[in-house]
Design goal:
The protein has 130 residues and is mainly alpha-helical. It contains 7 helices and no strands.
């Protein structure tokens, strides 16, 4: 599964991140910590955190302060994985192990705790990195 994510990301980069798309995306305010956090968190929950970072690397290196941007991306990609049960590759592994011990963690059960916790920690992360 994890290797498949890298294949999907490579395909995404070639098929979707065309020169016109890249030019349009580079006009976004990715230098703003709150905006970059939002983009990273959404992308992390769409394709998982590691592939999200791989997609964002082309944009981060071109920002005015790439070191700060990398810190924001690292924080957001890591914390965003807690948003849903599918937000990080580790979450389904933990849910599967719990199931083998008689504990069921459904998507919605996880979401009730994961979503508010993730939003709170992302806000704290943005405030600390501004």
């Amino acid at each position: 599964m994890f290797a498949g994510l890298f294949i999907v990301v490579a395909g995404f980069e070639k098929a979707v991140l065309t020169p016109p798309a890249l030019a349009a995306l580079q006009r976004l305010p990715l230098g703003d910590a709150a905006f970059l956090t939002t983009v990273t968190a959404l992308l992390s929950n769409l394709v998982s955190n590691v592939p999200a970072v791989l997609v964002l690397k082309a944009f981060i290196t071109q920002l005015p302060d790439p070191q700060k941007a990398w810190l924001v991306v690292a924080m957001a990609a890591t914390l965003a994985g807690n948003f849903t049960l599918l937000g990080s590759v580790a979450n389904p592994i933990v849910a599967q192990r719990a199931r083998s011990r008689g504990v069921t963690i459904s998507f919605w059960t996880y979401f009730k705790v994961g979503a508010p916790l993730t939003l709170l920690t992302l806000v704290v992360g943005v405030l600390m990195l501004r």
